[in-house]
Amino acid sequence: MTYIKYAFWGLVALCLVTVSFANRGLVELKMLPEAIASALPAGLGWLAPVVQVPLFVALLIGVALGLVIGLIWEWLREAKQRSEASRRRRRIVELEREVARLKDEKHEGKDEVLALLDKTG
Fold first, then answer.
1. What's the CA gap between 112 and 121, in Å, rounded?
2. What InterPro entries does the entry give (predicted)?
């Protein structure tokens, strides 16, 4: 099974390297559209940076950002289920302690037959 996992990740790495070599051209990444960036006052030019990076870097950053946003979204969405599971675990521990306590009280040095005689007599 580990060989299959290594083969899979090797194939993923090979695909990423191939895509990276095929998309080495530089692209400009802009924070704001041209019309809005030109309307900004001179002192606020830092709000509209322009960066030149290889296309594969932009693609990989986009994929990574998508994964991070998706993971955070799912973590927030599943908060109710995690809190419910935690509450149920605490309740189970409480009940197990109570069962152990009741078993100890039942068998506090008395024989079951003597305990029955005490109840009837």
1. 14
2. LapA_dom (IPR010445)
Q: How many domains does the chain have?
A: 2
pLDDT tens over the chain, length 121 residues: 889 999 999 999 999 889 888 888 999 988 888 888 888 887 777 778 888 999 989 988 998 999 999 999 999 999 999 999 999 999 999 999 999 888 877 766 566 666 667 666 5
Tell whether 92 and 106 lie within a shared domain: yes
Domain boundary among the residues 77, 92, 109 is at 77
Q: What is the pTM of this model?
A: 0.61
Q: Which domain holds residue 91?
A: 82-121
